[in-house]
Every structure is written in C-alpha cells, then in structure tokens.
Amino acid sequence: MSDRPPRSVLLPTTRWTDACAELAAQLGDNDELLIIHDGEDDPVTGREDAPEGVTLVAAGEPDGCSGKANAIAAGMAAARHDRLVWTDDDFHHPPDWLATFSADYEAHGPVSEVPYFVGRDLLSVLLEPLYASAGSLPLFLGNQIWGGAVMFERSDIDEAAFLDELRRTVSDDGLLMEYLHVTNVGRTRIVPIGGTIRESVERPVRWTQILRWHFPGAIAGTWIVSLLVLAGAVLAPVPAAVALTVLHLGVNEVLGVRRWTAVLAYPALFVFVPLLLYAFTRRTFVWGGRRYRWRGKFDVAVVE
Known about the structure:
By secondary structure, the protein is of the alpha/beta class. The chain has a domain at 1-108 and 145-181: Spore Coat Polysaccharide Biosynthesis Protein SpsA, Chain A (Alpha-Beta Complex), CATH 3.90.550. It has eleven helices and ten strands. The chain has helices at 18-24, 67-78, 97-108, 122-126, 128-141, 159-166, 172-176, 197-214, 216-235, 237-255, 265-281, and strands at 7-12, 32-37, 54-58, 83-87, 111-119, 149-153, 183-193, 284-287, 290-296, 299-302. The radius of gyration is 20 Å and the shape is globular. The N and C termini lie far apart (50 Å). InterPro entries: Ceramide_glucosylTrfase (IPR025993), Nucleotide-diphossugar_trans (IPR029044). The chain crosses the membrane at residues 213-240, 260-281.
C-alpha cells in the first residue's frame, strides 16, 4: 500500500474523450476523476459505463465568468481530496502521467508542465513557431502555470479567496499564477489547436486579453518587441529570416520538440503582429462555444 495522498483529478469536458479513458486507467486507490460538464444535455452524460472512480459533475451555465472557470470552481467544490490535479481533454496523457506528476510534487511541491500548440488549420500551423517562443518558452523558463497540467494542494493557496475571484473572471490558470508558485518540470505536451480559421483568430484574442488583465507589463513588452522585430524583418529580410528560423529551431530544442514549422517563423511574424493589433481592439471573443465580453479583470459577461 502506498502512503501517497489520494488525488482529485479535475477534467472539464462535455464529451468523453481519449483523455477521460487515459486518466481513469491511472487512478489509484481512493483517487477520483471528476468529469466536469455544463448540464444534462452534454454528450458525456449519456455514457452508462463510466469506470470506477469517475464522477460526473454538472457545473451549470457560467454567470459572470468563463465556462472553464465555472467548471474548475465546481470541480474544486465537489472534490473530496486535498491534492488536486487540473488537466484538459485535448492532449495525450501517457500511462505514467499521473504517477510521474505525483512524484514531481513530492520532489518540488506544486508543479506544472508545458504545452506545445500544434496547428490543425493553415493559420494555426503558420503561427506555431510564435506560439512556441511567445507562449510555451516563457512558461518553461519562468516556472509558470499551464492549467492543462498542474498539481497542488488546497493548503498551497488561499482557496476561499481564489474561488471567489475565479467565479468572476475568465482565465483559470492566469488567476492561479497570482496565488501559487510552481516548479515547471519542463515536460512538453503536444496540444492540437484550431481546425478552422475562425477558431485560430479567436485564440490570440483570448490570450491577449488574459495578458492584458493579469500581466499588463508582459503584453506591453510583447507588443514593443514584436514591432521592433517586424521593423527589422522589413529592413533586412534575408538576415531576419535566417535569424528567426535559427532562433525558433533553438526554442524547439529547449522545449524538446522537433517541428518543421520553425521555418515559418519569418512569414508568421507578418501575420502575428496584425493579429495582436486586432486582439487589442476586439471587445468580445469566443471560447468553447460561448462569446464573452471581458471588461475588467473581474467584470465578465457571457453575451451568447
């Protein structure tokens, strides 16, 4: 018998995905997997043969927060254990994922991993290298949190204050960064994104607004650096193309990912900067089938 504390794994999803089965197979004695969905009409509720240890939690419709924030809040309220694991349904969880993550916690305390976003449509494929350098690499180097893979215990945060704010905002991991210091163990998970151009346009809007409300200095720095690099790319295209390609090949090496899309770094820049400007000017965005208006850090309206 292991003396490891039991774990509550929180997985927001409305469908039974491969991740659900992968995580259910990794549960130990007294562990639980909470499949957190919106309501009784979700496809996941039609599954009648859920494995042992799996519980469906209906979060209800969000009011004043995002669907993801609402789901995490409901999951934390329903969870029976102190050791919590947040994860997502859109990436592969290998058979030793949960056990390795627990060993990481024992060694380091609160821990997280790194996403590497791989495109499923033309625009998201083009933007892959910039998502790696502007998104994944800072998480890795800065010991920052990715909500798709984070383990902590209730005593590691001020839970009551956190949940109160979570129910009034959009970004679950953006807010958690303000409450919790983690060790990012640097393991990279491939996360497919996009599928349609529309989805790929909405994503940077949401990410930009997360930075705007949680890390305004970071978004200002990103904008300034992007403009400077774009100016250099226009004035000296050949050296810039070579430098950007080499730089992003290096970023991929640090992240442990081999992707040919590093060669797209130069043309991606000419799309990324206008998208940043578009993201700054947008007042609403779509996430998970809902449209949100994020007017302040704790002022969120679900408009569709």
